[in-house]
Amino acid sequence: VTGLANHAGTTPMRERQDALVAASMLILAVRDSALATPGAQVGTVGHMEVTPNATNVVPGQVRMSLDLRDLNAAKLKSLGDTIRAKAQKIATDTRTTIEIKPIVHHEPALAAPDLQRAIQSAADNLRLNTRHLPSGAGHDAQVMAGLMPMAMIFVPSIGGISHSPKELSTWRDCANGANVLLQTVLALSS
């Protein structure tokens, strides 16, 4: 997002081209766009760099990340198109420019149904409660799905916290996950 850096004390509010205000509006547009359609899609802005990043200067530029995820490629494209359209309106309204450049793209990877059934059977035989859920995180399995059938086994995290120093699973849940994996491999290899 590019605006015009200018002095915070001498630049009238109506004359500002504040890149951070535009970026903030874009963040809300990402959230609102992801919430607007039923489904498991997510949109995240997790990183920002504000320039010149000074207390007394209207921000002139913001570089930020935008991460969109879903298991449906068409829905991801539609979400991206919606955000691009909203970005153009925000740019016009704030007299800034907004450039969206794709950096990385990974196609959604679906688990193989036969592997999911084998995992479910192993968990059933161990009398464990299960639930099927999509993984919104990127995993090695996402890459492997392009080479061979893939499925994943997750164990519960206390409080559902993931990818955080506070992430924690009980040893019992870890052991149950390892046993499901073992029983699945044994069943598939027989």
Beta fraction: 5-15%
Number of strands: 6
Order of helices and strands: EHEEEEEHHHH
Silhouette? elongated
Main beta sheet strand tally, sense and closure: 2 strands, antiparallel
How many distinct helices? 5
What's the pLDDT, averaged over the residues? Answer: 94
Distance between the termini: 57 Å
Helical residues, percent: 40-55%
Widest beta sheet: strand line-up: 1-4
The quaternary structure here is single chain
Commentary on this structure:
By secondary structure, the protein is mostly helical. It is built from five helices and six strands; from the N terminus they run E-H-E-E-E-E-E-H-H-H-H. A two-stranded antiparallel ribbon has the order 1-4. A two-stranded antiparallel sheet has the order 2-6. It has a two-stranded antiparallel ribbon with strand order 3-5. Helix 1 (19-36) runs antiparallel to helix 2 (73-94) and helix 3 (113-125) crosses helix 5 (171-189). The radius of gyration is 22 Å and the shape is elongated. It starts with 5 loop residues before the first strand and ends with a helix.
